Amino acid sequence: MREKGHGADLVAVARKYGMDKESLKDFSSNVNIFRSEKIREYLKEFDIESLFRYPDIHHTDLRQTLALRYEVNEEEVVVGNGATELIYLIARDPRFQRIGVWQPSFTEYERAIESCGKEAVPLYYNGNFDLDGRYFSALEDLDLVFICNPNNPNGRLKHIGDFANLCKALGVALCVDETFIEFSHREEEYSLLPLIRTHPNLMVLRALTKFYTLAGLRLGYLFTSRDNASSLASLQEPWTVNALASKLVSVVFDRDFISRSKEFYRAETEFVYAKLSQIEGLNVYPTDVNFILFELEKMSAASLKEDLLVNHRLLIRDCSNYRGLGEGFVRVSIKDRSENENLISALCTEVMKGSYGRDLR
Fold first, then answer.
1. Domain Aminotransferase class I/classII large, which positions (predicted)?
2. 70, 181 Cβ separation under 8 angstroms
3. pLDDT, tens digit, for every residue of 279-318?
């Protein structure tokens, strides 16, 4: 099984380097930097008594709220303890034995498949992170395919409607992970959510984790056909969503918060991308969301990560554990302007050291 590797592991990093985790600036975690004031206000008035009772085992109100927000039917919604639980739920479905994963991508797809004793079949993107048609013939031997759109770690959106049609024609189930799509102003253009009624085995995955900055709450949701939703829900443990998560969703989808976040990331990501592209020794990949992938030409991601930690208290994501990526790939998230400028300055310093020798005296 592939090694676990995620961003935002501040506790482990601080312990390893003997640092105060509060002193670290975390560019490895790609959650929204904004916080919803409506959520803060709701929590002040939250009915604590509801935590002493079992939540609704069917999550009826929660699924109704999500159905209204995303314009689907309640019966087309499956909820879980974060998107990750739903990924593992899909992976252990006995209908799916040979499962393809478009790579490089989020490492938990492969871990979930292997944890169920099943075969994870890699389907590799080309050098521009586009679907490589040479792997389409492999679909005939698969039961399910995972694809991330926008993709993690490069953040690029793809038009994959034709690919969904191909999977439908071949009788292959398709899970599209859209957990980052709400960062993009082109969400409606690229989302496959409108296809769930015409593609019975299509599953569209989203969560509150990234865009709504609720990583600690753990709420993910899956949109799919009624029959598929019923089949998946029958395999699920009871009460995987807590009462707080179920109730809080009623105030999460704040239009002002959504609009403000999208506009900020549209502008700030363009700024950071332009600045990073000017640094000699970096190959920077285009993105549509709140993080950027680049490849180091003359040093490893592990070396840069340590240099930035020790010398600048900045934490980045070493992406060398992604299948299909080399040791020089790094992902950084977008923060506010001053933090982004600090990162860019530190990168200029450390990449120059790595390119021209460690001692610049």
1. 27-347
2. no
3. 999 999 999 999 999 999 999 999 999 999 999 999 999 9
Place of tokens 């506790």: 11
Cis peptide before 104 (omega within 30 of 0): yes
- pLDDT tens digit sequence for 99-136: 999 999 999 999 999 999 999 999 999 999 999 999 99
* Residue 99 to residue 77: CA distance in whole angstroms: 22
Question: Dihedral sign, CA of 290, 293, 294, 299?
Answer: positive
Pairing state between β 202-207 and 220-224 = antiparallel
For residue 295, which of 265, 269, 332, 323 has the smallest C-alpha distance?
332
Distance between CA atoms of 297 and 9, rounded to whole angstroms? 26
Pairing of the two strands 291-296 and 119-124: unpaired
Give the Å distances, CA to CA, from 278 to 62, 273, 275, 283: 46, 9, 5, 10
Pairing status of strand 173-177 against strand 220-224: unpaired
CA distance 105 to 176: 12
